[in-house]
Amino acid sequence: MLMARFLITLGVIFVVAGLAWPLLSKLGLGRLPGDIHIEREGFSFFFPITTGLIISAVVSLIFWLLRK
Description:
The protein is of the alpha+beta class. It has 3 helices and 2 strands. It has one domain (2-67). The longest helix has 19 residues, at 49-67. A hairpin with a 2-residue loop joins strand 1 and strand 2.
């Protein structure tokens, strides 16, 4: 039962994030200071450290609120 609730919650979060993606892209997620983007000829590397930390904090807050 617990795993089913977790998977449903995760699915809902993904759906909400997908629907809100146009609004989220206007916030600058993926282009924040601390996100690493290296471009060379024939090579591109992107590692969103800051964006990942922010998204992790928001998801943790959501799960914390759902547990209450």
